[in-house]
Structures are given as C-alpha cells and as structure tokens.
Design goal:
By secondary structure, the chain is mainly β. It is built from four helices and 31 strands. The two termini are 23 Å apart.
Amino acid sequence: MTENFILALVPRAASLVLSLLAFATPALGAAPAPPAPQVEIEEDVYAFEDAKNGAGPMWCSGSTCLVRVGDQLFASGLEVVKTAKPLNNCRWVLYTRATNGWQRVRYSPLSLTREPCPVAVGADGQLFISTHPTLTNGTAGPSRPEMVAYQTGDIMAPRKSMTPEWAGTPAFTEHSYRSLAADGPRNELLLLMHSTNHWAMHWSFMDASGNWPARGEVLWPWGATYARPQPIRIAYPNVLLRNREVHVCGVSDIVEPNPEWRAFKKELTGKDWDYDFRRLFYVHSHDIRSGQWQNWVEIASREATCGWIMPGDLWLDDQGGVHLLWSERAIDERLRPRFFPQAQQSHGIYYVQIRQDVVGARRTLAVAEEGLSSEIPSAPRFQITPDGRIFVFYFVSGADASGKAVSENRLLEVLKDGTATAPVTVPMQRPMNSYFTATPRGGSPTSYTLDLLGTTVANPQKISYARIQLR
C-alpha cells in the first residue's frame, strides 16, 4: 500500500501513523531519528509542608508515586496531619487525573505514617498503595506494612486491605525504606522492607490471586575491607519484577565506616553519625518463588575520596539485558583539604549494561568536571518506548561555558551498543529537578508519553506534573 493511498483514505490518521513509523522504525542501517520532545502539560498537583520527620514526598525515589492506566493517571501524595507529632505525623492522599486536571479522591482518615506511599498498578485495573501505619500514638516505634487496593474503574468503591506475609517475625519501624515493584501484565507485586535486622532486607511476593506465596530475606553485602568489617545496608533501591525474575540496584547506607573521616565529620557537624551513600550494588533472583538470590555485585564506588552515589533507574530489555542508571559526585569537599587535596571534583550520570551476569563497560552519559565544565547533571530516569528504545531524561544545573546559569531538563537516547546520542533540551517552562515517572517497574506500560511527578526549580514546596510527548 503506497503512502499516497494511505493519505487519501484517512489523511489525519495516516499522517500520525507515518510519523510514528518514521520515529520507531528507521531505514535499515540508519541511526534512529532523534526525538523532538513536545511539552504538553505543566501543572501543580498539591502543595506540601515540611513534616520535620526526616522524610518528604520524594523520599521513596527508588519506587514511584505515579502510575498510568489508559488515559488516567494516579498519584499518591503525602499530607502533614497538624494534630500529630513527628515522626509519624503524615497520611497518604490519592489524586487522579483524566481530562479535567487533578482531583483529590481518597485519603487515609485514621492511619498515621512517616514516609510517602509508593503505588503500583496491574493490567486488571487494580491500583495498589503500599502503606505503613504506625502502631504507636504517632511517635517513633513499631509500624505494620499493609497493601491497600482500589479498582481504577471505580475509584470511589470500598478499598481492599491486604497484609503482606513475612519470613519469621521481623520488627518493622517507621523507617521502612520500603520498595514496591509490579509486574503489570501478570498482576503481581514485590515488596521489600528494612527492619531492625542489621543483616538482611525482607521481601514478600504477591501473586495475581492476592496471595503471598513466597517470602524471605536478602542478606546484605559484606564490607570486609572496612576498618571494622560489617554488613552494608542497601537503601533507595530501584527494583524490577518480571515473570518472577527480580533485579535490585541500591546504594550503601551505613554510618561512616572510616574512623578518621567519621571523627573529622563530627568536628564539623557535632554529630556522631554521618551516612556514606557511596557504593552502588546490584543483585537479582532468577525466580523469586525459589527464594534464591545471586551474589551482590558492586557496580560503582566513590569510596576512595568520600564521594556520593545515588541510584537512578533500572530496566530489563526483551533480550535479558539489564540496564542501570545512577548519579555520582567524586568527593566530599569538606574533607578534601585534609585527606585528598589533589583530588578533582566531578558530577556525572552513568550507565551500564549487564548481560548473562557479566557487567559491561560503564558509560558516562553526562559529566561536569572541575576546571572543564560546570553543567551538573542529576536525577537520571529511563523512558522506555513500546518499540524498545531507551531514553534518559535528566536535570542539569550550574553554569554553561560563558558563565550563564543553567537550569533545564535534557533527553538523550542509549543505543543498543551502549553508546548515547547527543542530548536535546526539553523545552519546559518549569524545569523539574526531582521526579517520579510512570515507570513499567510500577506496572505502567511502556509509552511514547513521558509522565513526570515531582518538584520544580521554581517552586520546591509543590508537587507538580508534566507530560511530554516523544514523537
């Protein structure tokens, strides 16, 4: 069928189809067409205030608080309860958006909590909210993980509450550091939690029937090289569940293990503790029902110069390749004059592929290096299209070569060989510097539509939404 014949039949529809084909299926041997991102919506969802409990609406950044179901979006928010005192002085709120902007549709009337509540969605239309109500009068102490479910087609119908099942009797507190992952097509969930156990992370798997047939622990990696060897607690992980296969990538989160650095930091801050966040680890299970996990693999480290690392995103392609994103800062500049005066600062976002359990070469996607560039990249997130293309959305701050201030979002594509295209600027009126996406890790479908929920540079006390088309 010729192009002219298609256009003669249905001009507008055919034009759209042809443009999608040109975007998704370039000519044999040709490079993919670069995206021309179109910003369709930028709007506020809700305002929030500091709960003074150490957490905030973006605190569960390894999971997501935004999912898409057809033309509808659902977002969980965090609301301070003014009559309650920290640490458990918040409640979750659910918002939805169809065609007429955002509406506040559900909230937790009684349960108090500390942390934001990640969400997930299944292909059957069930919306899941991971909640963690306190068992005290609001102060620090024991909490109970729960799963609340709604039907997206009738969001005002009574909710269903479920209690995850755990191996043993773990003692959970308000500091849950929990992660929620969904296999949307299979309507299955995985919940990971911290407890007072210093040796392992707890997990519980829910099948499509709403049962919890598998549960267990993942032992933390072992820090044998520290002055005092110890387990390395992993926090803020990106988690992916597909066909009962699980992939986890998170960052070390332990009290400063270097005695000299810890003593020096106490001189600066007056505190006995300071957490490290500078070693990135990955682990996976071939079948979560078996309860068996492979060994942890260290992906990146800034241990030598007391740097900083934060997970960005994780993806599993149809060929079994694992794709990881993260941010790094080379050094803690407070320590540089005394401990490593010759070290050079850098800020970058990085990418690696893992295939058949072999870690490939690390790629630098964007970097600011001392004396060379002051455009600092951060907050990288994948956007996966239905044809399997892998885009990276991120934020850039600092200054350009002329000294002009920079504050914008950019987009690039990671190609199949691991190389990246040149970035393009996303023309947002209000750039976002911290955000969730409607990621497939939360059950949302892959899409040419990039949905974002987070904070803007212009107004960090509001949670905003943006919709961007990658046509």
